[in-house]
Design brief:
With about 170 residues, the chain is an alpha/beta fold. The chain has one domain. It is built from 5 helices and 6 strands; from the N terminus they run βαββαααβαββ. It has a 6-stranded parallel β-sheet. Strand 1, helix 1 and strand 2 form a beta-alpha-beta unit.
């Protein structure tokens, strides 16, 4: 399965006005939501990515809840509308959403707003796989039979501790 499993990432133009909230931009991930960016960067460099959607097992929705939150054009109040419009656009442009109602699609969210970001896109909330940074499976909006947890990391600045010389 490691060799045959493929993921298609919905593309966007580099000059798309919202390219900054889609795949990771060149900046180094930081803060307590860095897992989202690291996940996307590693995924995009992996052998799992396919350019041919007919060969895909899963479809990745590359929006970033953390970046949507900080974009002054969208902000916290506009995230739900952005997601609703994004799904409408891809479902009209590509046939892949409609063949499973989004059940073979996934997105990553490491921000607490991610739980409510899908409130205007119920087909995403109830069908798509949410890969969520959380320390518990008991978060509102986490649906145990379809969602998955991603370990949350928070890169720190400065000298890293030398753990190899510590004694217990």
């Amino acid at each position: 399965m490691n060799r045959s499993f493929k993921i298609y990432v919905y593309p966007h133009r580099r000059n798309d006005p919202f390219a900054n909230v889609l795949l990771p931009v060149g900046s180094k991930p930081g803060g307590n939501y860095a897992s989202e960016s690291y996940f996307k960067k590693v995924l995009m460099r992996s052998h799992f990515i396919t350019k041919d959607p007919t060969k895909a097992d899963l479809f990745f929705l590359p929006f970033s809840i953390a970046r949507l939150r900080h974009d002054p054009r969208i902000g916290v109040r506009g995230i739900q509308d952005f997601i609703k419009d994004y799904i409408l656009n891809i479902s009209q442009k590509y046939p892949y959403w409609d063949r499973t109602g989004g059940a073979d699609h996934f997105y990553v969210t490491c921000h607490s707003i991610g739980r409510s970001a899908m409130d205007k896109a119920n087909e995403v909330k109830f069908n798509a796989i949410q890969v969520m940074c959380s320390s518990t499976y008991f978060q509102p909006g986490y649906i145990a039979h379809k969602d998955a947890c991603l370990p949350q990391i928070w890169p720190r600045q400065g000298v890293l501790p030398n753990l190899s010389h510590q004694t217990g």
